[in-house]
Amino acid sequence: MTESIYSTYPPKLSETQEQFLVSTIKDWTIQHGLTVRPPATFVSQDAVSKGVLATNAPVTLFPSPFPKACFEEARAVQKVYNELYARITSDEKWLGEVIEELIDVDDFVAGLWKVHQAVSKEGYVQDLSVGLFRSDYMVHTLGSETASLKQVEFNTISSSFGGLSCRVAALHTELLQSPPGHSLSYPGHPLLDGRVPPENTAVETLSAGLAAAHEAYGPSKSSPALPLGILFVVQEGERNIFDQLALSTRLTQFHKIPVFRLVTSEILDRTSIAEANPSRPLIYTPPHAQGTPFEITTVYLRSFYAPTDYKTDRDWSARLQLERSAAIKCPTVLNQLSGCKKIQQVLADPNKPDYLARFVPTAESEGTQEKLRKTFAPQYDLSPSGRGRELALNPETAARHVLKPQREGGGNNVYKEAIPEFLKSIPESDWKGYVLMELIQPPSEASNVVLRSDGEVVSGNVVGELGIFGTILWKSNGEILHNEEGGWLMRTKGKESNEGGVAAGFSSLDSIILY
Amino acid sequence: MTESIYSTYPPKLSETQEQFLVSTIKDWTIQHGLTVRPPATFVSQDAVSKGVLATNAPVTLFPSPFPKACFEEARAVQKVYNELYARITSDEKWLGEVIEELIDVDDFVAGLWKVHQAVSKEGYVQDLSVGLFRSDYMVHTLGSETASLKQVEFNTISSSFGGLSCRVAALHTELLQSPPGHSLSYPGHPLLDGRVPPENTAVETLSAGLAAAHEAYGPSKSSPALPLGILFVVQEGERNIFDQLALSTRLTQFHKIPVFRLVTSEILDRTSIAEANPSRPLIYTPPHAQGTPFEITTVYLRSFYAPTDYKTDRDWSARLQLERSAAIKCPTVLNQLSGCKKIQQVLADPNKPDYLARFVPTAESEGTQEKLRKTFAPQYDLSPSGRGRELALNPETAARHVLKPQREGGGNNVYKEAIPEFLKSIPESDWKGYVLMELIQPPSEASNVVLRSDGEVVSGNVVGELGIFGTILWKSNGEILHNEEGGWLMRTKGKESNEGGVAAGFSSLDSIILY
Known about the structure:
The structure is a homodimer. By secondary structure, the first copy, chain A, is an alpha+beta fold. Chain A folds into 2 domains: 4-371 and 455-514, no CATH class; 382-437, Glutathione synthase lid domain (Dna Ligase, domain 1, 2-Layer Sandwich), CATH 3.30.1490.50. Helix content of chain A is 35%, strand content 23%. Chain A contains 17 helices and 21 strands. In chain A, strands 3, 5, 6, 17, 18, 19 and 20 form a 7-stranded antiparallel β-sheet that branches. In chain A, strands 7, 8, 9, 10, 11 and 12 form a 6-stranded mixed β-sheet that branches. Chain A has a 4-stranded antiparallel β-sheet with strand order 13-16-14-15, sandwiched between helices. In chain A, helix 6 (162-176) crosses helix 8 (241-253) and helix 7 crosses helix 8 (241-253). The longest helix of chain A has 23 residues, at 68-90. In chain A, 51% of the residues are buried. At the A-B interface, helix 1, strand 2 and helix 8 of A face helix 1, strand 2 and helix 8 of B.
């Protein structure tokens, strides 16, 4: 079924049908804020610098088919995954042992660990952490076997596209049902007949997670008491701002919580910690209302996730300032580190002890651990005499694997037969910077048509990646105050592109039709 | 009050306050579709041609103060105005007499009249007309007198900006109340304290007018019966498309009515009238779904209002095709003609018979006529030995007047002392192409700050124009099936610019704070 469904999907478009869909989507996206700021490659740097232009986010013309059982399985394990990563984050000793192995090969991890150590030495003043997570999966098919779900990545920081993803679902839903009573936007196809994408509550769920943290922070720790608010820490010149604004709008309009945006480079200018106050509340003074400082309950990071976000020592100082404050961090440094590929590998390594049993309590039946484990693709490190090294160096077994650099921004993945040669070309001491992962085999005939941000329409074979959003608020003693699953993201990439985020260009935002 | 209110309004912005407001508005407008397509002067023609870029509609940073009594007065007379223009339209004899005076000097009016005559000869097959009207006013102040309301124009075709106007009201409302519980976006000012713009239901009202027409059309007149829908006739390359989409989205999502957009140049390609069917239903075949023709119940014109919309005879044929069809027109040719400046002048000419009494039935108390008349600024034609000619040629009296060309696109207004000289420079036979209007004196110190579509921020003295939206559906026998008032538009123009639509560049969309 999974392979055969693509033999007729998506239905072929005539020229006028494509024209209609494309022009409708160009207008719909702008009307509904399914937008990004245009890159300077498309319009002049001068026009971009005015900060007023926008263009559609890259989107597929059609929703992509996705096996219903896999979608439900992914949703069913999300709250367990939330808890797993909360527990890993709280187990500083175990997490530290894994992370310390990386410090030699990964300056970025080393820098983050140093921030944690500094705060740890001084003593943390905030016992709560909040996570806005996204677990990413691909559908794995082997021959005519039933499709299964395999986890690609678990994101613990800056899990993006919740805002825009909801709008893509709304776009496809509207197209599928338009004009009212007729459904003529798409050519007829059995898969589209009467179906619409499942409800997407990503904005509600993610915002509710931040609102729960804001609530749990309690009263102002300043004296006199200050008004409270949430701080979004963002990158300079963010093109994906409308995705973020969907969350802040929900927080202000529905939850009635003040939200401020602050670029990383201004953290030290606009925030302060009253050193005389042992509770270390984080004070933010809006530049436009300097007479009304706010106390920040929750810092939501949409920056500081990549090495490029730390250009100077000042950026590290800024991160430290946030970390040592009383604000609840989304995420803490430790929670960010728990999202390392290395952690995923250690959990999924068939030759390692059963760490899952350590973190997923037996009180939750044995079946729960098994459900998580089913979503793992086998992963290995390349330690001497380990199974991973053996699989990677043998061209025959390497052909079923991908070699991923542990380090963010640490270069491209290496695929299949190229792995043995690549490893031999670098010093053996660098091998611990890589993780070997069994290749996930997505449906090979999947295809779709994409409207890019520059207005070009491209079509061809694609690979889809489903993300499930979840949020969790927990105390360092393990007590969980809020644990929710809700909302999803479908990203569809051209087969040529093995890597790259959606905003970066080639991949696109999509929605799903369950079958 | 009206003058003095501006001595402290709008409050001065510091550099960081302006920066915050401007960047917030740049983001908000894109997020909420308060947008236009950018002009080719701002981005390259090549980028524009991709059809994906958008920028903010020009908007004021602050809502403008507006006298509450004037706002209520304007709303109170709208349904009477709707009825007045419906009655004028239905009085073909009276309307024809006024229009025929213009035919010599105005090819455009002549062309429209010819369309009416052709259909009249053949016989109209549609007894219903629908109007989406907008009555535009300025606040008139003289010295320290109380402000009064004076009508600038009554629009019977393509009354625009209902869609975007609602969003400007929402923008200013959100700014006035943000962050939640604090209101720090603007510097403090008594006029802004606790106030927000009045509710703006323009989208609901205008869409309900079209929906009422669709409903009143009745069952399909084709055999076999065809599905029914509304047709938006639009200009090629419309930059103000998102204003229009607000209405079609409301019609499809709330009223569940199919809506199609068609550029004028494609009317003859995509629509047809079954000549064998004496009811002359208008059939529209969507290019993307050619197997499913629709019967058009209602033609909504967002084109065909200006001479430039009729480039060739083919355009006139297209207008004729719509006019002679069974579709309900918004508006008919006659209804469009009723919106001529000349009609307004004839109604408002103190030296003419009391036409108002003819059209506003005495059953509605004498007070009603008086309420309308109060909104008129005196207007005159320039007929020999008439009062208008006398006022226009005397420099002293000319100084209180503006000379307006009757013809759309017929040149610029001529102001005050320049009037006598201008009239002497043109042949006397052309004078009947002009209307002399007593100048409305808006508050002279009104000022505001505008964010233009190219990102520039300009501030200075402004003139505001308030439009009130209304819709009416009536039978040619005078029976009224639907008559509603609802929604408003505030347009604010830099003092330098005496003319020009909002999308054209210098003027901007605004909202109001009642005082």
